[in-house]
Design brief:
The structure holds two protein chains of two kinds.
Chain A: H1 4-14, H2 18-29, H3 43-58, H4 62-69, E1 75-80, E2 87-91, H5 103-123, E3 130-137, H6 146-163, E4 171-177, E5 186-193, H7 198-209, E6 214-218, H8 223-231, H9 242-251, E7 258-262, H10 263-267, E8 289-291
Helix pairs in contact in A: 3-4, 3-9, 5-8, 6-7
Chain B: E1 2-3, E2 6-7, E3 12-16, E4 26-31, H1 42-47, E5 53-58, E6 72-77
Antiparallel strand pairs in B: 1-2, 3-4, 3-5, 5-6
Classes of the chains: A alpha+beta, B mainly beta.
């Protein structure tokens, strides 16, 4: 039990309000078992996130830095407006691409978003069409910037449109990636299309982007697995160095990492692209939700 | 305390965390991080002459980037 007189005396002596005396007590001894010895802190994670945040601040992205450092440290209480007034709780996620906690959430969201497109073409396969995997690579310049990423994606789009311009009903999904702990930007593409000559593809890629290396092969696994294979790196951190993670977050600021084209684009129209990461309706009864005060 | 440009901002209050179940926190006083830094690191506390161990730092309300750097922070000086 807290000795209130002693607590008040200590708070006065230290020059802090009693509320902060309580915060100190909870912070030192843990938030749940406030008077025992449980410790919920994770200094290593806090330190690591702090270093990533520092890079974001230095590049003028202080709001993002704030989100990154505070990911899941706070939550909101939610209540539904239905007759049962369901009580819910949701942590506040940063939803940044290179957050070790939010990456797997993005992966799950993207799988849900793009699975119907893959399922559709797997069910009704057009004669001569198949799922194929293309890898477009670019020259590693040792640095990565937002204009560079945007140009790369424009070049991928132009190349696919050029080599497939004579065909109808083709679709493509691609994901931008970098090598582990480096800036080797490349894109893995899952394309539903007829046979494409490697030389024609390489020629178009060279003319449009100036880069020369591109590979194509038939997808070695079936539809859903091919999509998981394509998107798996969204769930994994591409570096163990917080400095590189910060630089990647800066380079991909306002740049989409996963793109859909052709018939696959039509399936992704309803997704909010993560602009709304909280529940919008009650998961129990579908009623509207409202936030409660803390 | 004053600085060249007027009143110096509030300092960071530091406590030494208990090392055993029977102990309580020990208030050490108010300190300032090195110039240009907005939080204390273990090496800063070591320079202030603190021994190895775990400390809790309370940042003042008028600290820069108050939304970014946590109000409470645990800092460890490794032995």
């Amino acid at each position: 039990m807290i000795n209130v007189l002693q607590a008040t005396a200590e708070a006065n002596e230290w020059g802090i309000p009693l509320k902060e005396w309580m915060e100190l007590r909870a912070y030192v001894h843990g938030n749940v078992d406030a008077f025992g010895d449980v410790d919920l802190g994770d200094p290593a994670d806090e330190e690591w996130r702090g270093q990533v945040a520092q890079v974001l601040i230095e590049n003028g992205l202080a709001p993002k830095a704030n989100r990154y450092i505070e990911c899941c440290r706070y939550g909101v209480r939610i209540q539904c407006k239905g007759p049962d007034a369901h009580q819910l709780f949701s942590p506040l996620y940063c939803d940044l691409r290179y957050c070790p906690r939010c990456g797997p959430r993005q992966f799950a969201r993207l799988i849900e978003k793009h699975s119907p497109a893959i399922a559709s073409v797997s069910k009704r396969r057009k004669r001569g069409y198949a799922l194929r995997e293309i890898t477009f690579t670019s020259v590693n310049t040792g640095a990565l910037s937002s204009p560079q990423v945007k140009k790369f994606n424009r070049d991928v789009r132009k190349t696919l449109k050029k080599v497939l311009r004579r065909y109808a009903d083709w679709g493509a999904i691609w994901c931008d990636e970098v090598g582990f702990n480096n800036t080797n930007l490349h894109a893995h593409v899952l394309v539903y299309a007829p046979y494409i000559e490697q030389s024609a593809l390489a020629d178009a890629w060279q003319k449009i982007s100036g880069h020369s290396v591109v590979y194509i092969k038939k997808a070695h696994v079936n539809g859903p697995k091919a999509l998981i294979h394509l998107l798996k790196y969204v769930s994994k951190l591409p570096a163990d160095d917080p400095e590189i993670i910060g630089q990647l977050e800066v380079a991909f600021h306002k740049c989409c990492r996963v793109h859909a084209l052709g018939v696959f684009y039509d399936f992704s129209g309803d997704d909010t692209d993560n602009t709304e990461s909280e529940w919008t309706t009650c998961p129990h009864c579908g009623a509207e939700l409202e936030r409660l005060g803390n | 305390m004053t600085e060249e440009l007027g009143q110096r901002k509030q300092g960071y209050k530091i406590w030494r965390n208990p090392t055993g179940p029977g102990e309580s926190v020990k208030y050490l006083g108010e300190f300032y991080p090195p110039a240009g830094q907005h939080r204390f690191l273990g090496c800063d506390l070591r320079q202030l002459g603190f021994e190895s161990g775990e400390y809790t730092v309370l940042a003042p309300p008028d600290r820069p980037y108050s939304g970014l750097f946590a109000k409470w922070r645990k800092v460890t000086i490794r032995g």
